[in-house]
Amino acid sequence: MGRLIRRIAPLALLAALVFPAQLFAADPIKVGGLFASSGKSAFVGTASKLVAEMTVKQINAAGGILGRPLEMVIYDTESDPNVALQKARQLVEKDGVLAIIGPTTTGGGMAIKQYTEAQQIPSIMTVGGDAIIAGGKYGPFLWTFKVPQRTETAVKKIYALLHEKGLKTVGILTAQDGFGQDGMMHLEAQAAHYGLTVVAKETLDPKDSDYSAQAFKLTVGKPDAVVVWVIGPSGAIAQKNFKALPNYTGLVVQCHGQPDPKFIELAGAASEGALMPGTKLMAPDALAEDDPQRPVIKQFLADYTANGYDKEFPINTHSGYALDALLLLKAGLEKAGAVDRAALRDALEQLKGVVGVSGVFSMTPEDHNGLDEASMLMLTVKDGVFRVAQ
Questions:
Q1: I want to staple 162 with a disulfide (CB 3.0 to 4.6 A). Which of 57, 167, 338, 366 is the partner?
Q2: What crossing angle do the helices spanning 293-306 and 42-61 adopt, rounded to 10°?
Q3: Which residues, given as ranges, of the chain have pLDDT below 50?
Q4: What was the pLDDT predicted at 23?
């Protein structure tokens, strides 16, 4: 996709990207966007909205989808699951969208999922937690897909590295929210497979400003590594708390939501040596020339910079999720050959080899994410920047 406008002006609460009718003979394909442009998750949601707007413009400049322009109606979820559900209903019942991209958070995703499943609305979510596509007690996910790697995938990536290093014991610190609970479940379930024993568990409230007590309790038994499972500034706080302990020399590993220059800024010197799984977007120069993601990532980085987004929202592991969701939407509609919700759902479930920023997506009826451990890198902070962990 080529470079387009230098800067897209921020839209208000409701935004519609409409293109000159004379460029297309058919009516636009209308899709919804749910992004947290305000509230605690705005650092992810606002950038995702900008990338979605950029991608819609690029798709239309290249001829649209099935000869029709793509129009996106965007609402701010305010980082509130209740607002996310309210706006999802508005997108479906008032705006008449074909599908929904987003929301930003796992809580928002779970809040809208029962409704979108009942209404049979294809939803390509940009949330981190697995619950939205886990099935079982979490409900069906026939119409629900997600772009970020599954929690289980990130846990396997972490544990594989710990196993390679010959480590045997681990402590776990997770957030008291849906994302954290999801992390705790998979961190416990996968440990034995990698020869690891969970020796201590603690939880944290992301609204708190210090986790020294939890850090101390977790390290009393001197685990070989501790894993911190939380998104946002809390990860940096915990990193500093662990590094301040005089008698703990084990590894500190963050989750796949933390690869972000903001983490390094907030954690400061304590970030040095931190480990975490992340998308290849965080280490593009380390990719092999024949890696199919390399040209996609390089072009995305060029476009992101050309639009000036990097000045306010430096590239992080979340940056490409909205683009990937729209690429999947486009590939699904082209495979379906029709602008129809059921046909789109069926096509999305059968997509194979769709190359995005976050990985190469290959869906199945059982897996509505389509990414495995090979789509991730284990990263470390060295000299104040992210590098591939050795």
A1: 167
A2: 100
A3: 1-22
A4: 61
Cα gap 74→15, rounded to integer Å: 5
As to burial, measured by CB atoms within 10 angstroms (0-12 exposed, 13-18 middle, 19+ buried), residue 71 is buried
15-149+290-371 and 152-255 have identical folds:
yes
| pTM score over 0.85 | yes
pLDDT at residue 390, rounded to an integer = 80
pLDDT of 25 reads 64
Report residue 32: phi and psi, to 5°: -100, 155
Burial 90-118 (b: 16+ CB within 10 A, else e): ebbeebebbbbbbbbbbbbbbbbbeebbe
Return the ∠ at Cα 336 (arms to 330 and 340), rounded to 5°.
Answer: 90
Amino acid of residue 174: T
Distance CA 214, CA 234 (A): 13
Cα separation of 175 and 231, whole Å?
8
Backbone angles phi, psi at 29, to 5 degrees: -90, 120
Asked if 244 and 273 touch (Cβ cutoff 8 Å), the reply is no
Contact 298, 288 (CB under 8 A): no
Give, rounded to a whole angstrom, the gap between the first and last alpha carbons of the chain: 33
Tens of pLDDT along 80-118? 999 999 999 999 999 999 999 999 999 999 999 999 999
Q: Which CATH class is domain 152-255?
A: alpha beta
The residue ranges of every structural domain in the chain are 15-149+290-371, 152-255
